[in-house]
Amino acid sequence: MKLLVTGAAGFIGSNFVRYAMKVHPDWEIAVVDKLTYAGNLANLEDVAGGPKCRFHRADICDAEGMDRIFSSERPDAVINFAAETHVDRSIDDPSLFLKTNIVGTQTLMDASRKAGVDRYLQISTDEVYGSLGATGLFTEESPLKPNSPYAASKTSADLLARAYFKTYGFPTLVTRCSNNYGPYQFPEKLIPFFVTLLHEGKQVPVYGDGMNVRDWIHVDDHSRAVEAVLLRGRPGGIYNIGGGNERTNIEITKFLIEAMGKDASVMKFVPDRPGHDRRYAIDDTRIRAELGVVPQVPFQEGLAATVRWYLDNESWWQAVRSGDYLNFYDRWYSKAGR
Ligand code: NAD
Ligand code: DAU
Q1: Which of 9, 146, 251, 273 could cross-link 39 (Cys pair, CB 3.0–4.6 Å)?
Q2: Quick one: which ligand is closest to 158's CA?
Q3: From CA 1, how far away is CA 27, in angstroms rounded?
Q4: What pTM was estimated for this model as a whole?
Q5: pLDDT at 337 over 50
Q6: Residue 20, φ and ψ in degrees, nearest 5
Q7: Are strands 246-248 and 213-215 parallel, antiparallel or unpaired?
Q8: Does 189 contact ligand 2 (Cβ within 6 A)?
């Protein structure tokens, strides 16, 4: 298998590449990443650079650049993780979200189609469904009702994948996963943000009343599900992926406070995120029944291991905090004599 993976210098993409190289040592993986603020080559330091994993710094919105990479790499399949991903940033300025997440997806699908790839997997999100009340679950048939600019841009990309399948017979697959946690997550997202603040003895800002619910899944369970959809999913198929693990933000915050040996006084309630989705919860019957995928990492164990990872890898997040990680690309290339 020759695989092209975009956005793999980010959180989920880098974990997926590490997982795929371990489980499929015969695969060749081409990584494409623009290295935005969220991209960090240190996330791939132990796996990228050899003949089995080549890195290309490129923007998925650049059609000529994509054609060049597809001509040299000739991938059998593509997974598109590349995106602007932080809801709060999309509220401050939606423009880059629309460009990368919508135009970037279109450009990448056009390049993939021209190159005749056998499978194209679009990494979408459960945020396409909007928000649930106290009961019910998102199924793949739930109406799409995105509430943030981020979610609207991801929904557009998700629907473009559908349109390319229907119109051109292009073999797209779509996954819609819930909130991931694990190592290498950019410390602007809830769990690594709070762990790093607590480590520094600061208060943690809980939005609104803290009763918003997310369905948390370990990133390795997400990687296993992506692998299954890539290899065995139905072209044109859409697959929910969830952890079966609903938690309020207060529950998560209390867990982190305890794990870090602090007391409840460090919890600070701050004004709510505008349009803040109340509850996400996934019905993953389809991926269980069709592909036999079930999450394996118990939440308490996974979260405790994740907290330990951030504590053991302080140099990783301190480099992100200081901005030094942005120089990693230059250092990496000069070390390789390029
Ligand atoms: P991330 O922000 O950690 O990483 C995104 C990566 O995409 C970065 O490496 C960045 O440099 C790259 N990128 C951004 N714009 C690019 C462009 N124009 N061209 C090439 N590369 C570009 O994100 P993540 O949390 O790893 O999310 C990965 C994917 O999974 C996204 O599509 C996201 O919508 C989706 N998703 C995330 C979650 C979650 O909980 N984090 C859940 C469901 C779905
Ligand atoms: O559901 C999948 C989505 O999960 C992905 O598509 C997104 O890319 C990913 O960022 C994530 O979105 P969320 O908005 O759910 O994640 P975030 O970590 O930003 O916030 C999780 C919850 O915690 C949410 O209810 C907002 C709250 N929060 C977040 C931050 C950063 C706080 O209360 N305080 C904070 O400082």
Answers
A1: 9
A2: 1
A3: 5
A4: 0.97
A5: no
A6: -65, -40
A7: antiparallel
A8: yes
